[in-house]
Amino acid sequence: MVSEHRTADVSFDSLLRIFTVPEGPNSTLTQIEEKLSRNLNQFLREHIVAEEKPLIEIEKDFSNASIPEQPEFVSDHTQHLLDTLVSHSVHTSAPSFIGHMTSALPYFLMPLSKIMIALNQNLVKIETSKAFTPLERQVLGMLHRLIYSQDDAFYSKWMHSANHSLGAFCSGGTIANITALWVARNNALKADGNFKGVEKEGLFKAMKHYGYEGLAVLVSERGHYSLKKAADVLGIGQEGLVAIKTDSNNRICPDALKVRIAELKAQNIKPFAVIGVAGTTETGSIDPLESIAAICQQEDCHFHVDAAWGGATLMSNNYRHLLSGTELADSVTIDAHKQLYIPMGAGMVLFKDPEAMKSIEHHAQYILRKGSKDLGSHTLEGSRSGMAMLVYAAMHIISRPGYELLIDKSIEKAKYFANLIKEQPDFELVSEPELCLLTYRYLPPHIKGALASANIEQKAELNELLNELTKFIQKTQRETGKSFVSRTRLNPSQWDRLNTIVFRVVLANPLTGCDILNTVLEEQRQIAQQAPNLMAKIEALVEKVNAA
Amino acid sequence: MVSEHRTADVSFDSLLRIFTVPEGPNSTLTQIEEKLSRNLNQFLREHIVAEEKPLIEIEKDFSNASIPEQPEFVSDHTQHLLDTLVSHSVHTSAPSFIGHMTSALPYFLMPLSKIMIALNQNLVKIETSKAFTPLERQVLGMLHRLIYSQDDAFYSKWMHSANHSLGAFCSGGTIANITALWVARNNALKADGNFKGVEKEGLFKAMKHYGYEGLAVLVSERGHYSLKKAADVLGIGQEGLVAIKTDSNNRICPDALKVRIAELKAQNIKPFAVIGVAGTTETGSIDPLESIAAICQQEDCHFHVDAAWGGATLMSNNYRHLLSGTELADSVTIDAHKQLYIPMGAGMVLFKDPEAMKSIEHHAQYILRKGSKDLGSHTLEGSRSGMAMLVYAAMHIISRPGYELLIDKSIEKAKYFANLIKEQPDFELVSEPELCLLTYRYLPPHIKGALASANIEQKAELNELLNELTKFIQKTQRETGKSFVSRTRLNPSQWDRLNTIVFRVVLANPLTGCDILNTVLEEQRQIAQQAPNLMAKIEALVEKVNAA
C-alpha cells in the first residue's frame, strides 16, 4: 500500500486510497514514478543486451505459487521489480540487439501510452470506448488505404459504416492470420441452398454438403509457424497447410504452386486460400505476389498476404514496389509492433472488400447489437485495449515521410551489412536482404573449399559440425551479453539444400550504427576460437576431404 | 518531432532523436508527460461519465484515411489527443459508471505499466523476455493454485517445466475460452491407430475416423457470446454449441443437461465439452459446478469453467464456496482485467492437468524449439506483451486478503443495492445478485399489477412497452452523462419467460458509494417522466387491462 508509515494492514480505507488518483506532484506515487523513470531511462541508455544470470537462477525469484497473504508497499515492490525483473530483462531496444523483430521505440510513446492505460477503454463496444472506436476505425482505414489506395468516396462510405469493418485490430499477427483464414474458410463454405454455412453447421457438414474430401491452404515452405496453428484451430489440420517449394531466393515457385493446386483438386481437396509472404520471418523474402494473385483469381482462391513484418515497407515510396501485388490480396496482415515501431500487442488484418467480414459477424443481446458501431462484432478477440491510439499518434508524429526514411535507412543498412559480410573471407552470406533481414554464417575459406569439394557423406558431416559451431557462436554471443543475433535453420540451394544453421539479423533499429555491425562480426570470429575441440574436429575433417 | 523550434522537417537526425531516451528531468518530453499526467488525473478525478457529443460529430475528427504527409510536434499532437480523444472518451473508472465490468484501477499500476511499455518484452520466447518468462509462469502458477490448490511439490515440478504449461496468458477471456475448447477438441479427437489426430489431419477426417456425425459443446443459455465464436472458429459450428435451459436463478438445469447429452449421443453427436459459467455476463449467476463436474466425469466430457468475470471470487475465503466445483474443472478461464483490477488485455486459461496442453503444442525452427521454456509453444497468440507483470505486482501489493476485502465489499454492495431496489415500490429486481451483478427495471406498482393480471396478448403488449421504456431510460441516462447502467434482454420465469429488457449493474468499483446507487434510481425515476407519449400508451393499456 502507498503509505509513509509502514503499516502493512489490509483495511478497506487503505484499499480505497490505492484506487484514488493521487493529489499533487509531491505524492509518494509521483516520487516512485520519477525514480522508476530514471531507472528505466538508465536501463534503456546502457547498451548491454542483458545482465547474464542463468535462467535457473532467475526462476528461483519466481518460484512461489502462493498468492501473498501480506501486502507490500508500492515503493518496496517497485524496488523488488527493478532488482528481480528489470535487471534480468532483455534489452530488446539495444542497438546491438539485432536478432529479432524488436527495436528501440519512439520515446514519445512512453508518455502517450499513459492515456491508454489510465483511460482503460474497452474497444469491444462503443459504450466503453466512445472516441476510441472512431479512432480505431480511422487507423484501419489508413492501413487499408496504404495497401489498397481506394479513393475518398470509398472511405467516407465504409470506414465508419455500422455494419461493416475494413479489418480488425488485434493483439498480433497470429490472430490477424487466423482471422483472415477464418473469413476465407467461411466464405468458401458459405450458406448454399438448405445448407446454412460452416459457421452454423460446422466443418463436417460443410464438407459433406460441398462434397470435398479435404481443405487446403497453400503457402511457401518459409511461411510463418502461426499458419500451422491457424490450420489446426480452424479444423483444416496442419496437413491441410501445404508447403510449396521456394527458389534460391526463398520465394515461392508459382509453377510449383499451380501444379500443387491441380493435384489437390484432382484429389477433391479444395484449395480455398493461398498465402503470399511479404517478408518471411526467417529470411525476409517477398513472394512474387502478382503471380500468386493471378493464380488465385484463376482458381477462385482467397489470396491472403502475410505482411506482418514487411508491410510497413508500403510507407516508403522508394521501396513499396517490392511489395507489388499486395493490393491484389483479399486480405493482408500487418503488425504495427514490428516495423511501425509500436509497443507489443498491435496487429491488424485488412480486407479489400468491406463485405468480406460478414461471414464472421456475430451479435449479442447486451452489446454488439445489430446496427451498433461496436468493433467487437468483427473481431476474434472480445475485450481489447485502446492500443490503436498509439498507432494513430505515431502516424501523426512520425508521418509517412518519416516512416519512409526509417524503412529506407533499414534497407540500406542491411545492404551495407550484406556487403560487409561478403568482404570478409571467413563469413558467408546465406540469404541476401530484400528488406532489412539477412542470414549468414562463419565459414573460413579453407572450410568452405572443403565443403564444396567433399563427397555427399563428408559434406553432410562437415555441415553438421558447422551447424554446431554456428549454434555455439550464437549462444556464446548471447550469453556474453554485448550483442544478440538469432539463429534459424535453412536449406540453401547453394549447399544442395542441406539443413544449415545460420545467424539471422534484423536491422530495424534506427539506433544500430555500422560500427556495431563490424563489432558483431569481430566478436563472432573470436568466439569461434573458443571452441577448440569443435574446431579441431572440423579441421580434421577438412584435412580428410582435402586428402581424398 | 520533439523540438523547441517548430521546424517540421523530416530528417533522419530528428528521427533518431525521437528514438533516443531523453536526458534529464527538464526535457520537452518530461514536460509533456507532466502536463499529460495532470490532465489525465483531472479527467479521472471528475466524476462525469462522458462529455456528451454525438458519435457522428466525433467521427468527423477521425475521418481522414490518409496517413499524414506532414509530421506533427509531440506537444501539438498531445494537445490534439486531449481535445479530440480524451475529452470524448468514456470515463470507465467513474464510480457512477456501473454498467459494465470496468472499474477504477489501483493507481500504482499507472507508473508500473511504464516498465511494461519501456522494456517492450515479447513473451513468445525467452530470448526476448528473459525474467518475464519465469514471472509469467509464476503468475499462471498462482492462479492455478488459487483454483486447484495443489501442493508445493506439484508447482516446483510443473511451474517452470520446459515441456509443460499450466495454462496460457492471453489478451482476454475470448481467447482463453477458445484455447480451452481447442485443447478439449484436440484431446477428444486425438491420434488413434493410423489416425494422426485432428491437429494434423483436420476435423473432417477426424469425424470419419471416430464415426461421429457431429460435435457438441453444452452450456447454459446464459453462456457468453464468445463461445459461439469459439464454436465457429473451431469448425464445430454455432449449432454445435447447445444451449441448456436455466432455472429461475439463471443457473443451468443439470437434469436438462443430462437429457440433452443423451439425446445428442443417440444422434451420434459427440458432446466433448460442457461449460459451467461462474458469473454469467448478463446476470452474474453461477452454475451448479459440482453437479456439472459429476455429469462430465460420467460422460467423459471435458469440463470447462468460464470464470472470466467471477473467478476472482476465489480470492475471498468468505465467498469462494460460491464457486465450489471450479476445482473439478479440466480448465478455467479467468480475466485479470475484470475483478483483479488490471488494465485491459489480461486473460488467462488454466488447466488442471499439466499435460493437457500437449494437444496444441507447436514448434518452429527459430523459436519455440523443443525443450526451450518459450511460452509461445502453448499459446494461441504469438508475440505478446509483458502484461503478466501487472498481475504479479497487484498480487503482491494488494495481496490475497486485500482482494478478499475488495470482493467482499462488492458483493455486500450488490446486496445493499438489491435491497434498496426491493424497497422502492416503483422498481423491480429482476435477478438477485449472487456476486456483484444484478438486473432490475422501472415498474411502478399499478403497472406491475396490470402486467400480472393481463391476458397473454395484453401481457406481451404491455411488456413490449415496458421494454421501450427501459431502453429509453437507459439511453437517456447514458447520454445525460452523470451515470451509466447497461441493459440486456432476459426471459424471467416470474414473467412467463417473456423477452424482458432490464437494467444491468456491475458493482466492482470500490469507489462506488451507496449514495450513488440512490441517485441512479432517482435519476431513472425522473427520466421515466420525460417520455410522456410512451407513458401515456402504457397507462392506457393498464386501464384497458384493469377494465377487463
Automatic annotation (TrEMBL), chains A, B:
Cofactor: pyridoxal 5'-phosphate
Coiled coil (UniProt feature): none
Family annotation (Pfam families): Pyridoxal_deC
The UniProt record lists the keyword Lyase: yes
Highest taxon of the lineage: Bacteria
Keywords assigned: Decarboxylase, Lyase, Pyridoxal phosphate
Listed InterPro entries: Asp_decarboxylase_pyridox (IPR022517), PyrdxlP-dep_de-COase (IPR002129), PyrdxlP-dep_Trfase (IPR015424), PyrdxlP-dep_Trfase_major (IPR015421), PyrdxlP-dep_Trfase_small (IPR015422)
Similarity-based family: Belongs to the group II decarboxylase family.
PANTHER family, alphabetized: CYSTEINE SULFINIC ACID DECARBOXYLASE, GLUTAMATE DECARBOXYLASE-RELATED
Name under which the protein is recorded: Pyridoxal-dependent aspartate 1-decarboxylase
Gene designation per UniProt: panP
